[in-house]
Write a structure and sequence with these properties.
- Two copies of one chain form a homodimer.
- Chain A contains six helices and eleven strands.
- Chain A is α+β, with helices and mostly antiparallel strands and 261 residues long.
- The longest helix of chain A has 13 residues.
- The radius of gyration of chain A is 18 Å and the shape is globular.
- The mean pLDDT of chain A is 96.
């Protein structure tokens, strides 16, 4: 797998089964999405949950009708085959991890594609900032907070945040850069003292890996796409499908097209 | 003095000598400026100093030629009479404080009008943020930092900053709001640990008054218009005139007109 594949070529490799890996760093410059698929019975509540919590759940596209496998706004996509790895949940429990959901497809399923931090990390890197999880080659550290999401039906829970440390001037620059990208989590939700949002120990993230934080740096916290996954697990819908962590839906949208300014 | 005077009416009251007070809160919605007046021999270095240090020295207008008393971009202004109080410096020393500089005017003087924090404070207040120096009814606390300005000729020195405390979410919002106003100091230059920019004691500002900072708040620091005044005092030009602190040049420009977005 070279890095020069276009998003369409990469999706073709995924569709044909020749690529099933992590999509981080692939098709640079193009938007990658978190994926949630739910039966129509739960879909409208989930959509309201996203609408009410746009920072952790920035909705980039929804399928036009139940059973529809296309997301034409994002590219020539068949959602049953174009993600390298899926997780299938039954009654809120992880049931299996598969490379193709054609055999699981139902005519009542609704597809949700949500913005992901890869897009804003690219903008931060392009500005010369050190994104610690990238420079240390690990997954970004993520933490459960004491910040309540606005509930919608069975979907509810605390916000999960990702953390990247910066010196103050770079933290200010990061706020400016990410403000331009509201559809991929937007500006940070917190910076400074982790305890103020219910995080006891930066060295022990709830998801991902710890990164180093220098004495002259502030931890900066962004709303994270794990939030809707946690809400999904708590809501325990009878059936649901998500992408596997790091195995994203790669789209034809350019990250720069998401900039509002 | 009512608050309903237009900027032109307020300047007329100042010009006629019927108002000589602090302009804070007057002509709300309109831009007020810091004022520096220098002989042409020093003016080009000062202009380069402003250009090289736009955050502390945001230049809104310069007179068109030495000796020119007008600033048509800012209103129908006679700079000799339209500021309520002036400070006259000789060889860097405060010589006198006067209400009119007509008798001091020289045909080699160049006028510099610089943006002031009143404009961005108005934008913060309009967004519902608590601007502590306003809510506590005191002057904003200002501090000398260890941040070097870029020198130009004899003009040099450390940056002076103003401080307003906010909870993290409001600090992030303040970065967003002030980013829209680069010509009135723009986004903060620092937030969090004061020691990182050479400030030992928030309770003992070098200028202005201390304000309360709650445990769950971060101090947020903006480049301050006192910076060019300090550079001016250190450069010790043979002759200079500034406004007296708080006694600003009130212009016909609306604060909203300074927004770049």
């Amino acid at each position: 797998m070279t890095r020069e594949l276009s998003p369409a070529e990469l999706r073709q490799a995924i569709r044909s089964g020749s690529f099933r890996g992590n999509t981080s760093g692939l098709a640079p410059g193009f938007v990658q999405c978190n994926l949630t698929i739910l039966p129509a019975d739960q879909a409208s509540d989930f959509m309201r949950f996203c609408q009410a919590n746009p920072k952790p759940c920035p909705l980039l596209a929804v399928s036009a009708a139940p059973g529809d496998v296309c997301l034409p706004l994002l590219g020539d996509i068949d959602i049953r085959t174009d993600v390298p790895s899926y997780r299938v949940f039954r009654d809120g429990e992880l049931h299996e991890e598969v490379a193709d959901i054609s055999s699981h497809w139902r005519d009542d399923l609704v597809v949700f594609a949500l913005g992901c931090s890869f897009s804003f990390e690219e903008a931060l890197l392009a500005d010369g900032l050190d994104v610690r999880n990238v420079s240390e080659g690990v997954n970004v550290p993520m933490y459960r907070t004491n910040l309540d999401c606005t509930p919608a039906g069975a979907f509810a829970g605390k916000m999960v945040v990702s953390m990247r440390p910066f010196r103050a001037a770079d933290a200010i620059r990061a706020v400016q850069i990410c403000t331009r990208f509201p559809s991929v989590h937007g500006a940070p939700v917190h910076l400074g003292d982790p305890a103020l949002i219910g995080i006891d120990n930066l060295g022990a993230p709830d998801y991902g890996d710890a990164v180093s934080v220098a004495d002259n740096e502030l931890p900066v916290f962004w709303a994270c796409g794990v939030t809707p996954q946690v809400a999904l697990e708590k809501a325990r819908p009878p059936f649901a499908i998500t992408h596997s962590p790091g195995h994203m839906l790669v789209t034809d949208l350019r990250n720069s097209q998401l900039a509002v300014l």
